[in-house]
């Protein structure tokens, strides 16, 4: 099997159901999901089984789901069946709820960083936000599976929650942004 096809040498690429320019926003959207997947793989490679027995397999599953996102975004056929579902979004929400309880209380913005694992997860968060922005732009021009957009929105929050847990488990404090006001309050505090 050859890895090169030479079909993209003139600036166009194949999608499911047609071809587009390589700079097309749809290609940019699924390409950013692919980029994110690479960073998730790097985060996984930094994790040990003892400290992250729950998070590591979740991230491997997320890598599969990011391929699902890319598949849905690269499909331009009419009446296609999508892979990304509401169930995937609900899972992220449930896991975040648990991780928020595990990490120390948060009141202010924090700087990305801490341990190598947490730092890598913060990079995942920011690349995920870019993928979300690309999908937002794409949705203004064409129909997409809206669950992909929602999934990426929750996934970036998931990465934030997991980065904080990574620092907590490895006994490294998050660094608060010095000029931040108190922006995160519990529902009890808001009353």
From TrEMBL:
What keywords would UniProt list here?
ATP-binding, Cobalamin biosynthesis, Nucleotide-binding, Transferase
Q: What is its EC number?
A: 2.5.1.17
Pathway entry: Cofactor biosynthesis; adenosylcobalamin biosynthesis; adenosylcobalamin from cob(II)yrinate a,c-diamide: step 2/7
The answer on whether this UniProt entry bears the keyword Endoplasmic reticulum reads no
The organism's superkingdom is given as Bacteria
InterPro entries registered for this protein in UniProt: CblAdoTrfase-like, CblAdoTrfase-like_sf, PduO-typ
The residue ranges of the Cobalamin adenosyltransferase-like domain are 3-166
The yes or no answer to whether the keyword Cell membrane is present is no
Task: List the molecular function annotations (GO) for this entry.
Answer: corrinoid adenosyltransferase activity
Task: Output the PANTHER family linked to this UniProt entry.
Answer: CORRINOID ADENOSYLTRANSFERASE, CORRINOID ADENOSYLTRANSFERASE MMAB
UniProt family annotation: Belongs to the Cob(I)alamin adenosyltransferase family.
Q: What is this protein called?
A: Corrinoid adenosyltransferase
């Amino acid at each position: 099997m050859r890895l090169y096809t030479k079909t993209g040498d003139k600036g166009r690429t194949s999608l499911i159901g047609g071809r587009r320019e390589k700079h097309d926003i749809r290609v940019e959207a699924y390409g950013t999901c692919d980029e994110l997947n690479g960073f998730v793989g790097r985060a996984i490679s930094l994790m040990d089984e003892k400290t992250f027995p729950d998070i590591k397999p979740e991230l491997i599953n997320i890598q599969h789901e990011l391929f699902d996102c890319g598949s849905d975004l690269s499909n331009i056929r009419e009446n296609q069946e999508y892979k990304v579902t509401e169930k995937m979004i609900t899972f992220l929400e449930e896991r975040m709820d648990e991780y928020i309880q595990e990490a120390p209380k948060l009141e202010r913005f924090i700087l990305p960083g801490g341990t190598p694992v947490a730092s890598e997860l913060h990079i995942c968060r920011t690349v995920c936000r870019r993928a979300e922005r690309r999908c937002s732009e794409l949705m203004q021009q064409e129909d997409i599976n809206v669950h992909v957009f929602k999934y990426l929105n929750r996934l970036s929050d998931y990465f934030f929650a997991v980065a904080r847990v990574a620092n907590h488990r490895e006994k490294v404090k998050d660094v608060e942004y010095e000029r931040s006001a108190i922006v995160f309050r519990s529902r009890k505090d808001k009353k």
